[in-house]
Amino acid sequence: MAKDEIVLGEAAARGAAMLDIRCSRCDRHGRLSVKRLLAEWGPDASIRDIMHAQIGSCAHKDDSQIYTRCDPYCPTLVELFGAP
């Protein structure tokens, strides 16, 4: 995990109850319970790892072209931590 990567415990500590996960390339989106994720992944889990695990059923997750490959992001993190 990268030093500047946000972990689930940090999001929970800032009051996040749900994480919105969206794809910047298509209309796929979903909301995940932070409580459930903490039980499943633990507080040291990388939000990036969780997002990539959630795209498992996406038809575009392994596209050879980078511009069509699934690209998950979490708008909740911007609300909690601000824009990078």
Tell me what the structure shows.
The chain is built from 4 helices and 3 strands; from the N terminus they run H-E-E-H-H-E-H. It is α+β, with helices and mostly antiparallel strands and 84 residues long. The protein has one domain (8-81). It has a 3-stranded antiparallel beta sheet with strand order 2-1-3. Strand 1 (18-23) and strand 2 (29-33) form a beta hairpin. The relative contact order is 0.26. The mean pLDDT is 86.
User: Biggest β-sheet: count, sense, barrel?
Assistant: 3 strands, antiparallel
Number of domains: 1
**What value does the Rg take, in angstroms?**
13 Å
Distance between the termini: 18 Å
Total strands: the figure is 3
Helix fraction, binned, reads 25-40%
Sheet-strand content, in percent, reads 15-25%
What overall geometry do the principal axes of the alpha carbons give? globular
What is the residue-averaged pLDDT? 86
Assembly level = single chain
Strand order of the largest sheet: 2-1-3
- Secondary structure class reads alpha+beta
Order of helices and strands: HEEHHEH
Q: Supply the number of helical segments.
A: 4
Low-confidence stretches: none
